Amino acid sequence: MKDGYGLFTDPYYLSFLPSLIDLVKQAKKAEFYNNPKRHLELQLGLLELIESTDKVVSEGKQEARKSGNNEILKQRKRNKTLAYAFRTVGDGMAWRSNGYTRFVISVLSQARSPGAANDKSGRKREVEWAKNAVLNGGYVMIHDITNTLRVGDLSLYNPVPDITPYLSEVKSNKDLATAKQIQEKLDAKKPITKQEFRLWQAQIMISTRRWYGVQTIAVEDVYPSKLDFLPSAGAIMKQAERKGVYGKYIAPYLYVDAFDFTSLVGKSIEELTEKLDLYKPPDRSDHFVMHSNYDNLDALHKTEVLRAVAPYTIFPFTSSVIAKLISGMMMTRTFLFKEPLKAAFLQLGYELKLDEAILDENYDNSSKKNSVDFLSSEQLFPDDFEDKPWIHIRHIESGFMFPAASLIAIMLHEFFSVEYIVSVAEFARKRAIPGEAGYSYHDIRDSYRWF
Question: Which pTM was predicted?
Answer without folding.
Answer: 0.89
